[in-house]
Structures are given as structure tokens and as C-alpha cells.
Amino acid sequence: MLTYRIIRLLTNNSIRRIVQYPSSLRLFNTKTQHNNQIKLKSINDTHATLLINDKETKYDWIFLRDSCQCDQCIDSSTKQKLYNTTDIPLTISPQHQGFNVLNDNSVEIVWNQPLLNQTDTNVHRSLYSSAWLQTYSSSKNIAHARYHDRLPVYWNRNNIQQVNLHVKCDDYLNSDEGLYTVLKHLNDYGLVFIDNVHGEFTVERLTERIGSIRHSFYGKSWDVKSMKQAINVAYTSQALGLHMDLLYFEAPPGLQFLHSLANSVKGGAAYYVDSFHAANILRQNNLQAFEILCSYPVTFHYRNIDRHYHFTRSTIVLNRYLPDNPIDHINYSPPFQAPFESDTSKPEFRQFIQALQYFRDLLEDPNNQLELVLEKDQCVIFHNRRVLHARREFDTATGNRWLKGCYTDLDNFKDRLRIYREKFQS
Fold first, then answer.
1. Which domain holds residue 57?
2. pTM, full prediction
3. How many domains does the chain fold into?
């Protein structure tokens, strides 16, 4: 029967009738779908093999059934699935003559059985546009759909100084093009500067342009000033070494905004380092050190003002779901490290310390640091899981230094990046 079905499917070139599907299905019918030529090469009990623009791709029946976007499977209002993946029978496949390539290069499947425990036994039809099939034909295309194909641009002092990272506040707040420029800079370099920012609480507006403000025990927004009995080294005039914020949280904030409301002191220059660049150098030149930084546990904590935050994580974290396992984020914050909670009697501990020293030397290399004075009415935005920030010591007797900060999460940033990428397609 299977052989007969394959022969019929491969030899039947007639145009099938087009079934009317709910509007949610047409979300995948983009202007690019007609550029894709879909042909059926073969099918068996577990999958179909298609030729998309003459390139062979296999699709498992369970994957296709699980991806149906019709209004019976995806709620038309919430856009959420109405069944579980585990409801799909392992023996599901198309009915006899139930797999059809339509004249618009979409694929129609009429399934041979309902979902498990489903009382409605009516025939279920699914429709897949050629654009959707193309998207899910390779990991590269999936990465493109999620903006994962625009990889970070690693930088040192010399090459980042060649990039114009400045955007006017009015453009950022009031034009989609200005916002998209900021989003691209943050994706590419993890760093951008907003000029002509006026008003004590404007930093909150800047943050909310990307997403909701991430509250912490420091407040909705917070003031960075030198003060007595400071609860954080940032609230002093001391030098503050390279670090990332709130690594003692389970989910540290992804973007940090710092608006300079006053900066007339002597000293206090800020400097920034692309930790991805340093980690990549380590990966290329000392793989053993790189790998131990990917695995050895480091504990961070905050114990002050009746607070006790604590979290353990590795220094380098890879995205193991993307090709070549790129660096996903870095965890480096020496001022907030707790005593190690690993077994430091084992040789791996000293191996880790040596690897961390290699990494530190790369981070502390002046050639890898962008140093500047954040001028009054400038706001810096940086990727808190990638770009390290630091500050030189300053003299409080020589003037006033006042920054106001906010956080938002990477989820908000990535959401806006995808939406505006779809709008501008670049």
C-alpha cells in the first residue's frame, strides 16, 4: 500500500482544489513564498522529502502535525497551541493521496488519524506555505527568522572607534529608524550612546522605548552618586573595576542605561570592554582555558542592608543550540564574587584560576578598552551580559558626578529587534 501511495503521489501532477483555511494560517504567506518552488521527491511512514528550489529537505510527519497553524490547533486570539506535542500519535501520516503540493507551492496534508484522546474524529487538514517550509528547511534559515544570523561584531579599542555609535535622543524616541539603529548597534556591538538627553527621569523613557523597566532592590531607576555609607561600590568615588551588574540574580538584566546628569569632577572616566572579543581570542589560542571557563562554577553574592542574593554560574556560556556553539553571554564581576563553593582541593580549581587570569589579562589590555568621559546629557546603553563596564577613581572635591540608571531585560530587546527587523528587512 505504501509503495502504491508513493507512486500515485509522485505521478499525480494535477492541481488539487484549494481548501479555505483560517486567517491564522496565512500569517506564513509572505511575499517571498512565490519565489520558492516546492516539489515532492518521496515519502515514507515517518517523513516527507521535498525539493525546495531543488534543495532536498526532510520533514518528519510528527513535526509537521505539531506545527499546524490552523484555528483548530492555534487559538485565533491568544495565538497559543490548543494541544500538546505528546497528543500526536507516533503512527500519524497523510491519508492515501493526502499529501498535495498546490499550485501556489504550498503543501496540503490530510492526516490519517486524529490526535490522541480527541473526540472529534473528522478529517484534519493542515496547510504549509512555501515560505514556512523554506524557513524550517535548515538551521541557517531558522536562525535568520529569529535574527540569530546577525552575529556579534567583536571589537577592540581601535576598531570600535571607527564606528559611529551615537544617536540623537529625539531620533531614538520619535522615529522607528532611530530606534532600529540603536537596536542594531546593541546587537552588533553591545554598546550605543544617546546624545542630547535632558531631564532627570528621561532615562526611564529611553528604557521603556525598548521594554518595561526591570525593577530591583535599587529601585525602578537609581542614582549613581558618591555617598557616605554606600550600599554598593558604585556609590563611592573609588575606582570600580570591570564587571557586570546583578550576577547574583537568577536572571540578571540584559540592558543597562546610564544617563549622565552631571559630570564635572576630575577623573571618573568610564571604560568598556567587549568580553566576547576577549573570550574569542582565548578560544582560538588556549582552548583548554576557554573550556574550563565554560564549566567551572563561580559564585556571586550580595549581602548587605538585610539582603542576601546568591547565584552560581560559569564564566563563559555558549549557545549550544546554534551552529558552531557561539558565545551566548559572559559572567564576570569580581567585586561581587563570593567565596568559591566548589571543592578547591581538586586540581581543577587551580586550572580554573590560571584560565581566569588569562581571561583577565585580555580584558585588562588597554588595546581592548574603549575609555571616555560620559558627558553631561549623554546616555550610554550597553549589553550587560556582554560588555563589561568600569570607572576610574574621581575626586568629589572638584565637582559633581551624577548618573541615573535603569535596566530592562534581553527578552524585551530581542522582541523589538525582531519586530523592527521584519519591518525594515535589513
1. 2-137
2. 0.87
3. 2
| Beta-strand pair 327-330/369-372 | unpaired
144 is a domain residue: no
Domain at 400, CATH number: 3.60.130.10
- Please check whether residues 343 and 278 belong to one and the same domain: yes
* Cα distances (angstroms) measured from residue 111 to each of 96, 123, 127, 362: 9, 7, 11, 57
Residues 255 and 176 in one domain: yes
Cell of 204: 526611564
Cα gap 359→290, rounded to integer Å: 8
Same domain, 38 and 177: no
- Distance in angstroms (rounded) separating the CA atoms of residues 418 and 108: 29
Cβ atoms of 39 and 51 closer than 8 Å? yes
Residue type at 386 in one-letter notation: R
Sequence-distant (≥ 6) Cβ neighbours of residue 36 within 8 angstroms: 52, 53, 105, 130, 131, 133, 134
Q: Is 383 helix (H, G, I), strand (E, B) or coil?
A: strand
Rounded CA separation 293/30 (Å)? 43
What are the grid coordinates assigned to 235, written together?
Answer: 556609590
Chain segment 182-236, per-residue pLDDT in tens: 999 999 999 999 999 999 999 999 999 999 999 999 999 999 998 888 888 888 9
Q: 26: which DSSP letter?
A: G
Same domain, yes or no, for 187 and 101?
no
Together in a domain, 60 and 203: no
- Grid coordinates belonging to 183: 537596536
Q: Count of CB atoms within 10 A of residue 124's CB?
A: 21
Rounded Cα–Cα distance for residues 299 and 342 (Å):
9
Provide Rg for the chain, Cα atoms.
27
pLDDT for the residue 15: 27
Q: Are residues 209 and 312 in the same domain?
A: yes
How do residues 259-287 score in pLDDT, each as one tens digit?
999 999 999 999 999 999 999 999 999 99
Q: What DSSP state is assigned to residue 382?
A: E
